[in-house]
Amino acid sequence: MTTKSGKIYLVGIGPGSPQYLTPAASDALSASDVIVGFRAYIEQIEGLTAGKEVVSMELGQELERAAAAVDSAYAGKTGAVVSSGDAGIYGMSGPVFRVLTDRNWDGESPEIETVPGVSAMQAAAAVLGSPLMQDFCAISLSDLLTPWEKIRSRLEAAGQGDFVVALYNPRSRRRQTQLLEAREILLKHRPGDTPVGIVGDAFRPGQRVKVTTLQDLEQEVESVDMVTIVVIGNSTTYLHGGKVITPRGYEEKRKET
Amino acid sequence: MTTKSGKIYLVGIGPGSPQYLTPAASDALSASDVIVGFRAYIEQIEGLTAGKEVVSMELGQELERAAAAVDSAYAGKTGAVVSSGDAGIYGMSGPVFRVLTDRNWDGESPEIETVPGVSAMQAAAAVLGSPLMQDFCAISLSDLLTPWEKIRSRLEAAGQGDFVVALYNPRSRRRQTQLLEAREILLKHRPGDTPVGIVGDAFRPGQRVKVTTLQDLEQEVESVDMVTIVVIGNSTTYLHGGKVITPRGYEEKRKET
């Protein structure tokens, strides 16, 4: 091909508030001819898309969005593929690198630049207090691309390792039981009074925060949906002043002076 | 006490480039009378501290910094405690909530607002490609506050759960062997050719990137220090075009069309 290839920015726009759009993300959007993204995310940045070609698609069309961006880059354009949170954490980096791999991308042309953003898990943690202060893991309960048995084994491992756990995609209309199964698995490894925080739409209009325990999570499942993050403390996590707090380490006693 | 208490912003300034300082973080700094932080981080935001009281301390003085911020908030001032990356991920949120707990903080006064930022792990992942696209965990190899046996058990669990692993504080002058032990543990669970990315000072002057395998990590330990992030792929992670890529899920075949 003699056409000079363009560039793809993989842009994380953060939790969805303009206060969390980094200068790097704004600059990437402004440098792009084409903006590709899920409709709702495009709406969140609509002030920044004026005069640009906008490719807005629905949920589930991730590979189609990635292909549109890659096509446009091979045609010499500069494009931004927009993800909520961080493009690299359950975001659009995956589909774009998948399409590039399938097309035998040479690693250089088009140029790929990732602009990370604040992920939903971090926004949820910030609202809850300080739950992620020790080793933690992120687990998506969606079994669309990962078999449920694999996810179960990760929950089991997270329990054994006493990791703080942040659950993405905890529950949907189609998937009602996974969150309760996750609770059962973790209850084998940590106490029933382990603090649990449930956050929906962190830093956005309609933000919802609920603090409960692993034991009582059962009664709160109705407040959990696809865009909620559920953060489950480890064996040292405690509640104080309404906040979910994981101390810095095991050797640090809570009331030690 | 009749004095009205002030406020503490727990501010993550991101990886250290002004391009990743969020508007929320800039606003929090600008709204603060007092800025408290590790000397090197204060230097990274020096354009934003003019005319403010600056409390700059050394590494290891985390509880002292937290106490200074809490003192100043109980005295009615508004202060920002600055962390590199995200305040809530191995950052200053921990020490501040520890001091607040010790002082029987009522959860309201002083007001605490956390401003999350892009963490070092996310910056490293962005530079490497797309390694965090499936469930992952963050593990600090520092045994200052967590016993090494606990850290070992987490590495073991991360291996069993086939998590992508991001290692913080992987090696220091005092700790030379932990990274190699981590490698040994993970090698029991994933192949020797598993991609590994080593990133120092992501998005900063002097950024260093090395891509190797779990097998060959042994030969690269000299390039790893306290401020390096080591990202170890899971069993599906592959290299393409020099990038470390974890596909979105187990059911997604790399070359499937």
* Approximate helicity band of chain A: 25-40%
Strand order of the largest sheet of chain A: 3-2-4-1-5
Helix/strand order of chain A: EHEHEHEHEHEEHEHEEEEE
The largest β sheet of chain A comes out as:
5 strands, parallel
Largest interface: A-B, 84 and 85 residues
* Structural class assignment of chain A: alpha/beta
Radius of gyration of chain A: 20 Å
**How many angstroms does the end-to-end distance of chain A come to?**
68 Å
- What's the overall average pLDDT of chain A, rounded? 94
What does this structure look like?
The structure is a homodimer of 257-residue chains. Chain A is built from seven helices and 13 strands. The radius of gyration of chain A is 20 Å and the shape is elongated. Chain A has 257 residues and is α/β, with parallel strands linked by helices. In chain A, strand 12 and strand 13 form a beta hairpin. In chain A, helix 3 crosses helix 4. Chains A and B meet through helix 1, helix 4, strand 5, helix 5 and strand 6 of A and helix 1, helix 4, strand 5, helix 5 and strand 6 of B.
Quick take:
The first copy, chain A, is of the alpha/beta class and 257 residues long. Chain A has seven helices and 13 strands. The model of chain A is unreliable at 253-257 (pLDDT under 50).
SSE blueprint:
2 copies of one chain form a homodimer.
Chain A: E1 7-12, H1 23-30, E2 34-38, H2 39-44, E3 53-57, H3 62-74, E4 78-83, H4 93-102, E5 111-115, H5 120-128, E6 129-130, E7 136-140, H6 148-160, E8 164-168, H7 178-187, E9 195-200, E10 208-213, E11 228-232, E12 238-240, E13 243-245
Parallel strand pairs in A: 1-4, 1-5, 2-3, 2-4, 6-13, 7-8
Antiparallel strand pairs in A: 8-11, 9-10, 9-11, 12-13
